[in-house]
Amino acid sequence: MDVSFAFGALLVVLGFVAGIINTLAGGGSNLTIPALIVLGLPAEVANATNRVGVFMQSISGIAGFRHHNRLDTSDLVPILIPNIVGGLIGALAAAWLPSSIIKPLLLGTMLLMAFLMLVRPKTVMPDATETAKSVKNTPAAWLGLGIAGFYGGFVQAGVGFVLIAALCGTLRYDLVRGNALKLVCTLAFTAVSLAIFIWQDLILWLPGLLLAVGSMCGAWMAVKFAIKANPNTLKWFLFLMTLVGVVFAYIK
User: Fold this and answer.
1) Which of 222, 245, 233, 247 has the alpha carbon at shortest distance from 16?
2) Which residues contact 87 (CB under 8 A, 6 or more apart)?
3) Using one digit for the tens of pLDDT, what is the confidence trace for 211-247?
4) Which domain holds residue 103?
5) Which residues contact 59 (CB under 8 A, 6 or more apart)?
6) Total domains present in the chain
7) Full-model pTM
8) How many CA atoms lie within 13 A of 176 on its CB side?
9) Alpha carbon distance 40, 45 (integer Å)
């Protein structure tokens, strides 16, 4: 499809902002998916095309966290198994189920996350002094990571919040290491989703790649901020983005 220079530049800028938001918290797709729909893409095509930017920003963010030695890989395989299985099921559901399901699912997820952060913040945001748990010794983590994978494969928008709840809330990683692992999980189930959406011919590559250019730059800058930021700053940013996610989910 043809994309004007102005709209192409807008996609790059929105991708940049989304890359920052997704790396530090979640919900960046609340900006990019509506932009793709305004461009004229059907909801299911916009949902699929958006994954190109998400995939590339995950690679960029992972590289940044690894460069700063903040990517904890000690329990990575057990974390990824339920996440990838959930992502496969979610992507298949997204390819065949009606898009009308997305709004209530997105709104419900954002409201639950905001409620937990307001009423019981330590449920999803552990103290920096806590020691991370292994998946093997935390059965609830299998369920949480599987749900996060399904949600990411199906909706994508706001999946960062679900992953943070599983990684920081259940496994007790701090927000920096949790965000790093969140990007690895996102990369894994997004790869599965992309394969299914390519198979279903649901991706438009030009707008997807324009988003990817901005998203990669945004993710790289966000990592630098996350490494230097005060943990409380990251917590408040996460809470703010959760509230913004609730608003976007409501007005969609």
Assistant:
1) 222
2) 149, 150, 152, 153, 188, 189, 190, 192, 193
3) 999 999 999 999 999 998 877 787 777 777 777 766 6
4) 5-251
5) 187, 216
6) 1
7) 0.84
8) 20
9) 10
